[in-house]
Amino acid sequence: MTKTTPQTNRRIVLASRPTGAPTADNFRLEEVAVPALEEGQLLLRGQWLSLDPYMRGRMSDAPSYAPPVEIGGVMTGGVVSRVEASRHPEFKEGDLVMAYTGWQEYAVSDGTGVNKLPAGFAHPSHALGVLGMPGYTAYAGLIDIGQPRPGETVVVAAATGAVGSLVGQIAKLRGCHVVGIAGGAQKCEAAVKELGFDACIDHRAADFPEQLKAACPRGIDVYFENVGGAVLDAVFPLLNIHARVPVCGLIAHYNGGTLATDSAAILRRTLTQRMRVQGFIIFDYYVNRPDLHAAFQQEVGNWLKQGKLHYREDVVQGLENAPEAFMGLLQGKNFGKLVVKLD
Amino acid sequence: MTKTTPQTNRRIVLASRPTGAPTADNFRLEEVAVPALEEGQLLLRGQWLSLDPYMRGRMSDAPSYAPPVEIGGVMTGGVVSRVEASRHPEFKEGDLVMAYTGWQEYAVSDGTGVNKLPAGFAHPSHALGVLGMPGYTAYAGLIDIGQPRPGETVVVAAATGAVGSLVGQIAKLRGCHVVGIAGGAQKCEAAVKELGFDACIDHRAADFPEQLKAACPRGIDVYFENVGGAVLDAVFPLLNIHARVPVCGLIAHYNGGTLATDSAAILRRTLTQRMRVQGFIIFDYYVNRPDLHAAFQQEVGNWLKQGKLHYREDVVQGLENAPEAFMGLLQGKNFGKLVVKLD
């Protein structure tokens, strides 16, 4: 054996639970020894760590669809890794895999939940975005719940984000009028020029509700909800009869935050417009809808190969910068899918 | 011709629009001459007038799914009538028909929207309730949106009302655990003893939320929403993962009224529980789902004949008493489907 086990794993653990927006104090960088492999185990060297809004939920111990990260536990996260060493029959050194090994550089695994990337995967980090969880989130929420028809108006916020950028592009490919919402002129310009949205409105503009209304002259048929807050307040009065609102995320409320529209008004409009408001967690679609997942992989994979989908990554270098990048993500500072290069 | 045209029609018109709860001032009883029939027309003598919560919406000029009643116009309403005279080829004297001829004793019609009751219809007033719009509302909302599965817990408010009483009984027939909510001990007792609900909770009780929770030990899978307000506040924390909430009405809000649950909390729970909240207007189901309407007529008609469904009417005598009865309906004073005997 010429190969030696690396000595040190760097990892980021939850030091304390945030109240409101997370701060640097809530995270702690630790260095620990990597244990020697036992029979049936494999050692993963992280290459790309995905940072996603859902992680804010894991930092809280409020009831949720998934258990929280324990205090002192490694932060949850999807990682694309290279198999560094293997004593597991199904994996060999050099395999590229995706697994939820968390915010760390190395992980020892028994293979559970470790998925090899398909051969010919052009960019390993795509497994964390357009061809991974955010991509399937966009696809399932839009297609299964949103059910957009050609000519309908689809609105999505965080228009240049990992999910929003795909929602809008898929809706365009389905023949819809697509209006994005984003923070700042640069993102709005990219949504129109790079992603092909019909319009993109800056939610920071003083007359944002009026601009949104003007961009949706036939109202809104599908609102892919991933932010909540003031964006939802502006969208709600524009929703058409039989509008569909897949609720994918509420990033404006993860750190607190309120709505101007009161709940009775939301229900009244849901009734009079015969709207469908439906929350979803992509995990359910992985478990219950393998048919839809296969359709997603084929359709989005083909669009990507054919150059019909633009996919932008916002790459941060080094594990130690993950907390700051994650805090920025919750404020919309990223531009494209946020990933951390680990090696 | 021995037959003479009746001289006088009594009708109730909208005198003014209510702010908050309607008052007697908002209605006016008028007497007008019945016009002579022209060729192609028929004269309808009202027998049963249906009073339903949706009529509160027609009294307002706020945007809605249907145009408001004009000031001075006859109040909207479904009526079972006897054809008194006919110069229309498809109708003959003595036919029993259902039509939206409004709060009046006589109406002249050209036949549009006039539907003959099927032969063998045991009780003509059933066409306004269990076999009519309220029945189809209960059936379509529960079956198409609620999608109850055996063993699931279904909760419905206004449990002894026209819609709620059917929702609960149909859910029982589908094998569900059914919990009603009603105002007062008498109605709650009737829901359990007459209608066969597993439990019925009095929303006026000080510990109503705790009682509701105790009656739903496995949480709530389907909440058929027809009231809103404090009932919804108590229901919301109990909704299970993948709960379905058909929103049929919001009677607690028709005259104003707020919710304690804020809208961000509603959306958050919709997301974390992956709930489906869907408004519906039964009119759409008449237009778009003739298949479901046929299934409703067959299934509910059979249950009724077989004595599997209990149906209670709250009968008010005389058109002049319709306004007071309607005002009481909005306060839950009725006990069963509210109808006015016109002749």
From TrEMBL, chains A, B:
InterPro entries cross-referenced by the UniProt entry: ADH-like_C, ADH_N_2, ER, GroES-like_sf, MDR_fam, NAD(P)-bd_dom_sf
Q: Which SUPFAM superfamilies match?
A: GroES-like, NAD(P)-binding Rossmann-fold domains
**UniProt KW Oxidoreductase keyword:** yes
Read off the Pfam families from this record: ADH_N_2, ADH_zinc_N
Give this protein's Gene Ontology molecular function annotations: oxidoreductase activity, acting on the CH-CH group of donors, NAD or NADP as acceptor
Record has rRNA processing as a keyword: no
- Keywords for this protein: Oxidoreductase
The Enoyl reductase (ER) domain, residue ranges: 23-340
Task: Give the top-rank taxon of the lineage listed in the UniProt record for this protein.
Answer: Bacteria
PANTHER family from the xrefs?
Answer: PROSTAGLANDIN REDUCTASE, PROSTAGLANDIN REDUCTASE 1
Protein name (database record): NADP-dependent oxidoreductase protein
Q: Which organism is it from?
A: Herbaspirillum seropedicae (strain SmR1)
Read off the lineage from the record: Bacteria, Pseudomonadati, Pseudomonadota, Betaproteobacteria, Burkholderiales
Gene name of this polypeptide: yncB
